[in-house]
Amino acid sequence: MIRRLGRLLGTAGVVLALALGGLGAGAGPAAAAPLPIDQCTTTSGVVLAVDFSRWGGPLLRSCGTTPTTGYALLNQGGWKTTGTGHDGPAFICRIGYSGHQGGKQYPTPDQEKCVLTPPASAYWSYWHADPGQNTWSYSQLGAMSYKPKPGSVDLWIFGATAVGAATARGPSAGGRSGSGARGGSAGGGGVGADGVGGEGRPAFGALDVGGS
Question: Is residue 67 pLDDT above 90, yes or no?
């Protein structure tokens, strides 16, 4: 997972931008769709990026109006989450998008029951990049407590997370913080990036969802 995050952050050049207005038959109504990605700038809106590559899927980006919390961003514009029976909705156990696989949420129930807190080797970790930054920061707060800044980017990526000193090619293999941002619950640390995406953001290949 660490190598994968490093690749996402270190991709040089222009971010792949495919306007996918509707990603398939499972897409929700137009009123529930994300904003066109170009409506997110370094001063308005918040870009949400979710990496489904663990299940052979894409890294999806969408633009949301500046939400009150990271949790709200992850539950608007066709995005849905499921918490755990132990921790409630604040712990992000599953994520799905209405335009991807008919809204199927991952990990699936047969992969993770979402009753107890998932293990540190298999959970959704939460990252941020503030406006103008070319590095990711491992979330210091849970999704329900964190308030994204206008022009920032939120990233969710699944798998074990080691948080250590940043390197030129991304995160090191250092030890994972004991209170890391598991499911967007808490966290600390940071990672570096080689490339810079549009308007000073970290670069990563992605499929953009939302109107064109």
Answer: no
Question: To the nearest 10°, the Cα dihedral for 175, 192, 54, 65?
Answer: 120
Residue found by looking up tokens 């969408």 in the block:
62
Q: Token digits for 191?
A: 């990672």
pLDDT for 47: 95
Indicate the Cα dihedral angle 43, 142, 124, 177, nearest 10°.
Answer: 110
Q: Write b or e for each residue in 151-174: b if 16 or more Cβ atoms lie within 10 A of its Cβ, otherwise e.
A: bbbbbbbbbebbbbebeeebbbee
14: Cα separation from own chain's centroid: 19
**If we measure between CA atoms, which residue out of 139, 178, 162, 184 comes closest to residue 1?**
162
Q: Are 155 and 212 in contact (CB under 8 A)?
A: no
List Cβ neighbours of 167 (8 Å cut-off, separation of 6 or more).
192
pTM of the complete model beyond 0.85: no
DSSP class per residue in 121-163: TSSEEEEEE-TT--SEEE-SB-TTT--PPTT-EEEEEES----
Q: What is the pLDDT of residue 134?
A: 84
| Token pair listed for 116 | 């107890």
Average pLDDT over residues 182-203: 43
Where does the pLDDT of residue 76 fall: very low under 50, low under 70, confident under 90, or very high at 90 and above?
very high
Query: pLDDT value at position 202?
Result: 55
Whether 102 contacts 161, CB under 8 Å: no
d(CA 76, CA 39): 16
- DSSP, collapsed to helix, strand or coil, labels residue 192 as coil
